[in-house]
Write the structure tokens for this entry.
Amino acid sequence: MKNNLSTILFVLISAFTISCGGKSTQQKEAATSIEQVMLSDSTNFFYINANNSISTNPALPIGVFDSGTGGLTVLDELVSFDGYSNDRHTVGKDGKPDFEKEKFIYLADQANMPYGNYYAANKSDLLVEHILKDAQFLLSNKYYADENAKNYNNDKESVKAIVVACNTATAYGKDSIVSFLKKAGIDIPVIGVIDAGAKGALDLFSKNESGTIGVFATVGTIASKGYENTLNRLKDKMDYTGNIQIYNQGGHGVAEVVDEEPEYINRTATTPYDSYLGPSLNHEKYKISLSLLDIYQFDFSNNKMLYEKNANGEYTTLQINSADNYIRYHLVELLERLRKENAQALKAIILGCTHYPYLLSEINNKLNELYNYKKDEHHYYRNVMSKNITLINPAENVAIELHTYLNDNNLFNSKGSIKESEFYISVPNKDNKNAITDAHGRFSYDYKYGRIAGEIQEYVKVVPFSISNVQHEVLKRLENMIPNTFALIVEFSKKNPKTANISSENKINFSN
């Protein structure tokens, strides 16, 4: 961004106020800077001409965004959801997906993920800026045909609703999106996942029942206290009188592993590597305890744990290198805190990150293992665990909220098709000379979290999904875990001949 524009923006900041209750001054200023550009700088890429491009038209698509591919689990719930009659929109299944005539536009801000780490890097203001740019993409008509395109296309549709399919983005940026829409005079809803997840967990309890709710989410979401505050607010509002305790577990590295971030998982590594950032023996906060190795029960086969030993056979280095082992580490750490504090029995775990539903089997397997774990002939964790712990995926409640809004406002599309849905992903903008990428072609960690909010520039290009910008392990996971949504991705990919097309697993050229 040019210096004179920076000066103008900072002058505007002092005169332009926003309503972001509970946000830091830095977050407010970051939101104000990008908002001002989006609202009034018609020469800037991020400008939105709200009068010309946005309306409450039933034919418009529904926008969904996340920091990566994890939000596709929320979209998959929308794609598959059948809770109402399609003809009358009354409660009751009719064997047809409720949103089968709606077009969705999905954005994975993969280049800037993981969102959960911005708080730890003291860059929550930069995160808010990214989130507002995500909303800008959904509201605008701009995208790039591929990462090498010099000029953007302007034939994308705007959206009639925004679903924030990311817990961290909901916690830190949903209010900023709502504030921007109000200033722009855009009357569309913004639906987040946190209220939905909190309500789903509380619904498991009777009004006077005691127990523990675990919140398993990104470090950033936990730090925001979004779930904790929402659970306590709803608990009081709904007159729960039992002793419902809340325990948080920041899933450091879990979302990153799902999206194959090389600082957290390296499938080609056979020994520990220097750029690793996950839990370790010497990590400042997420430390692997040698005394708990018998409880972690890590899988050491096929380099799923990377390690070094000294001459006495003692571990001197331990690095986690599989999704299952990340889950093992974090669930043991959560249960250890419950045990040491003699907590109420754990009854539910909110999956407070949209990436985590991809790991349901790993989570359930480890919970079952811990429930049955014995030490000195007694069950070590049973006094702080219910036998059947419910895993709460907030996506179903999101679907209900979206359906209610469309029905109440007569915004259901009567002539569209879900098969017209579109899928986009952000990639580093190689034409931005400020961008610093690593050997994998991704933003280096230091660059990603070293950027400064308020320096409004195109860090990324948003392009269609293709096998050149989505990891092949991720594609295989999508095909196996969310086949209905994967089929829509394949359908969209066929319409973009300039990109490396995605097809069914046996046709994907994974060598690309």
Q: What stands out?
A: The longest helix spans residues 167-184. Residues 1-22, 505-512 have pLDDT under 50 and may be disordered.
